[in-house]
Amino acid sequence: MSPQPLAPEFDQRLPRYHRVREALSAEIAARRWKPEEAIPSEAEIAETHQVSIGTVRKAIDSLVADGVLERFQGKGTFVRRPDFQSSFFRFFRFASAGGAARVPVSRILKREETTMTVVVAEALGLKAGAPAIRFSRLRLIEDRPLVLEDIWLPHDRFKALLTIDTREFGDLLYPLYEQYCGVMVASAQETLSAEAVSAKNARLLELEAGEPVIVIERVALSADRQPLEWRQSRGPASEFRYQVEIR
Amino acid sequence: MSPQPLAPEFDQRLPRYHRVREALSAEIAARRWKPEEAIPSEAEIAETHQVSIGTVRKAIDSLVADGVLERFQGKGTFVRRPDFQSSFFRFFRFASAGGAARVPVSRILKREETTMTVVVAEALGLKAGAPAIRFSRLRLIEDRPLVLEDIWLPHDRFKALLTIDTREFGDLLYPLYEQYCGVMVASAQETLSAEAVSAKNARLLELEAGEPVIVIERVALSADRQPLEWRQSRGPASEFRYQVEIR
DNA sequence: TAGTGGTCTAGACCACTCC
DNA sequence: GAGTGGTCTAGACCACTAA
Known about the structure:
Shape of chain A: elongated
Helix content of chain A: 25-40%
Oligomer: homodimer
């Protein structure tokens, strides 16, 4: 791959490795280098930006630490495709027989055109009442309902989704966003809490009324941290387990 | 502070910065440099270990990333005292009037000498039936019960705690461990889940029976990652909120 | 002003991958 | 063997802190 354009005018007071980082970051967000692709070699980037290789390494180091890039000795440095499957499995454990982690089966229960509520609009940086697309989705493992999702999208950016039969959506939404709406989810901010399940949700999740459920509220972001999707997921607390290291 | 002893014989195949990191780590675990103290300057460490300053910086970088050390330009590099208060407040939000985060008041409900259950013993790397000290503790904010804790300690290492009146324990346990047992908690592994509250716990937490509670299981570790304490905390799910960034 | 960490350079050699 | 990232060096100069 040929060298990227000269770095835009980032704040000159910032350290060089920081400016190089911003430049690389911008290229990735602009999809000049796509996920799974190698970026130019360290030597080439150093040449392009007129800095030493050590400085380039420091810039790349920080992008690797943030999970944006991946390095492989002898092969190159690659744009990392975020794997949200792992997020799902980090939170819910399954007493699945084989033990292998499989993508849960998804069933779209409802699709509607509506307007943003105050809460959703605020999370997405939009005005309440703005046009929206809303999905209700159930995810199952071995025919057992595991997670019930309430998904909200800005209408403009995602209207292409209204043209597809929901029975052909498949089990994952983010690949659809990419394919039909040209939108790539790069990261997400999640908030965990818990509540007693409502009567309606209990029926869908096949729980007793009042049983505890975990609530995960997610805002999915693009590479340049624009909010794309708001989603609230609920699953039985008995299936939930999350580990953290505290320092 | 004078230079530390020559690095022990770490695996010679490991990179130098890694060996330096291990050596520094060992000094900290051995409490040769205590929390809040400055470690020797980078130049001095480079001299001691016969490596270049760049290599020392790389070793220190990784300890800083892991939260073991803190750097201050112009001042030095310091051993970080882990602040578990922040862990507590990371999980529970309080509708406290002022908004200021305060240490919750602690009330020891029970102290007993007993033997390790299978679950606790396994988490602490001990044998089931080994002698143990067990505390039951309630933590309150503004006289409202917030967290109920079940705390298990190996008897040998912590028997000094049996000599103090529990009414004089104060609101934090880890300083006591340090003062009376010469044991310092450096990190912790926590697992979150949720359940419907039991009748007994509901009474203590002033909840309705069956309301959802968050369960946090913690194994506290020393700097060299020896398990020190096992603890299970329960609090009302309504007060609970935890944020994660997914990439 | 002396001592600290923060940035940056220009090179060297090694380990690994791929052709 | 050519090209990649991984480690390591020995300097330089800057920014900040404290006496």
